[in-house]
Amino acid sequence: MRPSATNPPELGSRSKPILSAQGIRFRDLDGNGTLTPYEDWRLSPAERAQDLVARMTLEEKVGTLLHASLRGAGSSFDLSTDRYDLPLARQMIRENHVTSFITRLVADPAQFAEQNNAIQEAAEATRFGIPVTISSDPRNHFQFVPGASNVGGGFSQWPETLGFAALGDPQIVHEFADIARQEYRAVGIHMTLSPQADLASEPRWPRQTGTFGTDPAQISELVAAYVSGFQGSDHGTTADGVLTVVKHWVGYGAQPEGLDAHNYYGRFAVLPGQTIAPHMAAFRDAFRVQVAGVMPAYPVLREVTLEGRKLEEVAPAFNAQLLRDELRDTWHFQGIVLSDWLVTRDCNALCRAPDKDHPQELSDVATSWGVTGLSEEERFAKGLNAGVDQFGGIEDPQPLLKAVHDGLVSEARIDHSVERLLVSKFELGLFDNPYTDPAAAAQLLGNPATAQRAEQVQAAAQVLLQNRAAMLPMAGLAGKKVWLSGMGEAAAQAAGLTIVDDPAAADFAIIRSGAPHELLHPYHFFGSRQHEGRLDFRPGDEAYDALVKAKAAGLPTVFAIFLDRPAILGNVLDKADAVLGNFGASDAAVLDAITGRTHARGHLPFELPSSMAAVEAQNPAVVNDSKDPLFPVGAGLDY
């Protein structure tokens, strides 16, 4: 609901005075003692933004187009830090005029809120008092993925989005997103860099855990529920909502061999013929509910034809056919286009070919795929002219300023994006009160009832793939002896189980595992953190050897596997009596499914292949197309 004379906003100021005009209160953000139109909350967000843009210098406008990183104390990118480098943040806000930042802070809720308030104080002290938009990668999923998510700080922990796809229930997705929205705003986060509407079309791709699976229609429906829950409505962002950035437009999942485009070696995706159409269709309902932002994908798309024209082989952030012609004109998207991170940076030798003696560091990461032959200022200009509004991971305004001064991009084009970005801040109410209450944050986050509900959904989202001799559910476990592999003892003890070290002394076994993977690129920054390569279990794998050991002891065995990628289970099924697939679940949630306290009722959101030969023969752009899958998409047993 828009503020009005009968419903005025609650104002929050730390350094700028409060004005009274006609008996109504406003923040005097420019400090001139009179009511400037952009300070007047009775005007529409568009009217306020237009007034402010007309007052800004080119330098202030260019700074608005950068989405930088809030670093930890000592300028660190350390994900475990609990406080910002405030002097550095103040410098970027004051000198570079940056007003959008991603946070990777991990802190208790009150501390988190206080740190974000300190950032807003620094912004309030600037010439126009333009508030900061603070974004985050996902924080509410049980599995932590470096570079793609954050965890900790009291945020409720739900299954990965693949788990929501396994349940297929838009109401549960909306429930989750609505809770996450409240948690974000409580600590001062205003934008989520999620969800992924990518099709999980290549089984080896390491980022499918953050997708909604392989069915474009279901993805579209669940993405819409996610967006409306976060933004606060199904028709755009509300004042207490969180700007939602759906990603990655488009075709990101079609990576040959699953080699991810964060890395130089994974910079291409291949979508022959009309295979790009389902990848686009997955975004449909995000646009219906007026998603605030879209993030273009990283890889250069090859073998794609759109509207009878061959697609230019540059990354989507530089591709006018994908952004202007398709996204804006065909799909009628009116929101913010935020590039993924570091798309304008040079890819140096350590970006391309690091080695044991010279591993790639974060400072060597770059993703300027398809435009490496252009200068940095030319990349900025090409991206803006293609349709990008803001550049992720960038804090230096000079190359973009030079592009304007050199005539590569017009100031009118800059104005258009600045206005769009400012409208989002006005819609969120940040110009009227950018501050949050640390005490309220401490009370909201870590709520026991919410934590219990989230763990219940973790348990329910599991998929029962095998249940020989109706082994599950196993009620009355108190006092039974269990041999564990890959599961912590605490949850088993809480369930009344007695843990033994010798399989011969156990009544049954529980073995937890992730899907198999290899470390194919250990010297690349992201390659060293991503799961690549094979999907089949082999001797020497800890979980496989544990299964063999349990089988030799004659133990009834439950095998619980985290399906971050579609594992090949052919040589597992003969060794396990029950097989439970999960998509991010605590030990307690796994035990709840084993005992039947919560029934696992998920269904596979992708197929599980029968062999690596079948995986290698499938088309990375096409979903569920491996030969003779061991488990088809949608598989899942009842107890």
TrEMBL record:
<dbReference type="Pfam" id="PF00933">
    <property type="entry name" value="Glyco_hydro_3"/>
</dbReference>
<keyword id="KW-0378">Hydrolase</keyword>
<protein>
    <recommendedName>
        <fullName>beta-glucosidase</fullName>
        <ecNumber>3.2.1.21</ecNumber>
    </recommendedName>
</protein>
<dbReference type="InterPro" id="IPR017853">
    <property type="entry name" value="GH"/>
</dbReference>
<dbReference type="InterPro" id="IPR001764">
    <property type="entry name" value="Glyco_hydro_3_N"/>
</dbReference>
<dbReference type="GO" id="GO:0009251">
    <property type="term" value="P:glucan catabolic process"/>
</dbReference>
<comment type="similarity">
    <text>Belongs to the glycosyl hydrolase 3 family.</text>
</comment>
<feature type="domain" description="Glycoside hydrolase family 3 N-terminal">
    <location>
        <begin position="57"/>
        <end position="422"/>
    </location>
</feature>
<dbReference type="InterPro" id="IPR036881">
    <property type="entry name" value="Glyco_hydro_3_C_sf"/>
</dbReference>
<dbReference type="Pfam" id="PF01915">
    <property type="entry name" value="Glyco_hydro_3_C"/>
</dbReference>
<dbReference type="InterPro" id="IPR036962">
    <property type="entry name" value="Glyco_hydro_3_N_sf"/>
</dbReference>
<dbReference type="InterPro" id="IPR051915">
    <property type="entry name" value="Cellulose_Degrad_GH3"/>
</dbReference>
<keyword id="KW-0326">Glycosidase</keyword>
<feature type="domain" description="Glycoside hydrolase family 3 C-terminal">
    <location>
        <begin position="501"/>
        <end position="639"/>
    </location>
</feature>
<keyword id="KW-0732">Signal</keyword>
<dbReference type="InterPro" id="IPR002772">
    <property type="entry name" value="Glyco_hydro_3_C"/>
</dbReference>
<dbReference type="GO" id="GO:0008422">
    <property type="term" value="F:beta-glucosidase activity"/>
</dbReference>
